[in-house]
Write a structure and sequence with these properties.
It is a single chain. By secondary structure, the chain is of the alpha+beta class. The chain has 16 helices and 18 strands. It has helices spanning 2-10, 23-27, 47-70, 84-94, 113-121, 141-151, 181-187, 231-236, 240-250, 256-259, 262-266, 272-280, 286-290, 301-306, 313-327, 350-357, and strands spanning 33-38, 74-80, 99-104, 107-108, 136-140, 158-165, 171-176, 196-200, 207-208, 222-227, 348-349, 377-381, 391-392, 399-400, 405-408, 418-419, 424-429, 433-437. The chain has a five-stranded mixed β-sheet with strand order 7-6-10-8-9, sandwiched between helices. It has a four-stranded parallel β-sheet with strand order 3-2-1-5, sandwiched between helices. Strands 12-18-17-14 form a four-stranded antiparallel β-sheet, with no helix packed on it. Helix 1 crosses helix 6, helix 3 (47-70) packs parallel to helix 4 and helix 3 (47-70) packs across helix 6 (141-151). The radius of gyration is 21 Å and the shape is globular. The two termini are 40 Å apart. Bound molecules: iron/sulfur cluster (SF4) (2 copies). One iron/sulfur cluster binds next to helix 11, helix 14 and helix 15.
Length: 439
């Protein structure tokens, strides 16, 4: 058991679908259930779907390794019913293993791990808790593939992602970690728009990019290209002070943001409309209102779907969370977590969300393409996972081979081992990244 945990650590496996929590920590815990998150609910992104078609066997084997190392009795794969081919592929790979498929509806955000744990096991994570608190660990499906590879001593050197939206050939492929975003977009044929902007990781929970030289990391799910004049680019491109200034003057406290909030509907005390009051009553009530943001997942539904006035309640929650961290305040929900009676009726179908975002016309498959891309150079970030930045183990002008360890986890800290994603020469080493030239 210790062996696989160590192999996962040495291979640098981290969550491939979210913040990038180091997987060796999860694999070393004791749980009842291991869950695979294949929900992929971000509009336009289909990389997990493509990967399930391609690597179902490796994923199931990876899950069995996690089941064994955690002492779990069962595994669940959360996959949307609409992705029938992926379900078929995973089912065939499961065979007689103690793994079930939890079919999910096509709603946003069915991939939130609080939601997934509830749907698969019927258990509600305690307010402020993690899946471990109810005997579960959740891994993205790509992470499970990387766990399987770790057992063969194959480190994480490449990332599976998709490029979608206004590009010539929406598609999914593996690229070396550290490849610049602009080169990845060219692999999908480049933009169909003369002037375009790019969202990294999704329209809902991703970020509008300001620099297309930004490299792919272990958590990059994909790039979505939109015309520069698209409403989302305009909205999310505004400076932060505008979000709060507009909210302060225009929020009429209609409560729609709260009424549609998936965490609120699950029974957690997340009330973005009250958080918006922190913008209005900063002198007196902010400390109190801020607390209603603590359990927010950052899904973005309140900002990009629910608010009829196009305000920024999610961003107000982000600000409140930052403020509470600064002040060392932790909100503890005292009332029990109880499903809201309107939860089912208020689910947001992905189709409706895409219509609201004005991206329905960009919906397209992103089929797998075997690109075998060899970038001229890669920039490998030293912080790609939850925890501390890794410590470089190479020096300027060192020759490295693909798969060599180039940075390690600081002693006694949380983090991830980092490997060279291409063979070449180290041409830059600093506290933030290592640049390798393919020569
Ligand atoms: S939905 Fe918009 S206007 Fe209504 S309370 Fe929330 S932030 Fe304010
Ligand atoms: S981003 Fe908005 S809708 Fe999503 S969990 Fe946070 S408050 Fe709720």
């Amino acid at each position: 058991m210790a062996d696989i945990v160590n192999q996962i650590r040495e291979a640098g496996v981290v969550g491939a679908g979210g913040a990038g929590f180091p997987t060796h920590v999860k694999s070393g815990s004791k749980v009842e259930f291991v869950l695979a998150n294949g929900a992929e609910c971000e509009p336009l992104l289909h990389k997990d779907y493509e990967l399930m078609l391609l690597k179902a066997k490796e994923m199931v084997e990876g899950m069995m390794m996690m089941i064994e190392s955690t002492g779990a009795k069962k595994g669940y794969f959360g996959i949307k019913s609409k992705n029938a081919l992926a379900i078929e592929a995973v089912k065939a790979a499961i065979g007689s293993h103690p793994i079930e498929i939890t079919e999910l509806g096509d709603f946003y955000p069915s991939g939130d791990e609080y939601e997934l744990v509830y749907l698969a096991t019927g258990r509600l994570i305690p307010a402020g808790g993690i899946p471990l608190d109810v005997g579960c660990v959740v891994n993205n499906v790509e992470t499970l593939m990387n766990v399987r590879r770790a057992a063969d001593e194959k480190p994480v050197t490449e990332k599976f992602l998709c490029v979608a939206g206004a590009v010539k050939n929406p598609s999914a492929f593996f690229v070396p970690i550290g490849t610049p975003a602009k080169e990845v977009i060219e692999l999908a044929g480049g933009s169909t728009e003369p002037e375009y902007s790019v969202f990294n990781g999704g329209l809902m929970m991703g970020k509008l990019m300001t620099n297309l030289d930004e490299p792919v990391t272990k958590t990059t799910a994909g790039f979505i290209v939109l015309p520069k004049k698209h409403q989302l680019v305009f909205r999310m491109g505004q400076p932060e002070e505008n979000w709060h200034r507009i909210g302060k003057s225009a929020c009429d406290q209609c409560t729609y943001c709260t009424e549609f909030c998936p965490r609120y509907l699950l029974g957690y005390n997340v009330q973005p409309h009250k958080v918006m009051r922190s913008l209005q009553f900063t002198a007196t009530g902010a400390g109190y209102w801020n607390q209603m943001a603590e359990l927010c997942s950052g899904c973005g539904l309140c900002t990009l779907y629910a608010c009829p006035e196009d305000l920024f309640p999610r961003e107000a929650c982000d600000q409140s969370k930052r403020q509470m961290r600064l002040e060392g305040v932790k909100y503890v929900q005292t009332h029990p977590v109880k499903i809201h009676p309107m939860k089912e009726g208020r689910k947001v179908p992905l189709k409706m969300l895409m219509k609201k975002l004005n991206v329905s016309h960009l919906a397209a498959d992103t089929p797998f393409v075997d690109v075998d891309y060899r970038p001229k150079e890669v920039v490998i970030k030293l912080k790609q996972a939850v925890g501390e930045p890794s410590e470089p183990k190479v020096a300027l002008r060192d020759r490295v081979a693909k798969g060599d360890v180039i940075a390690t986890i600081p002693e006694g800290k949380l983090g991830s081992t980092i490997h060279a994603s291409i063979s070449g020469t180290v041409v830059d080493v600093n506290k933030e990244f290592i640049r390798i030239l393919n020569n």
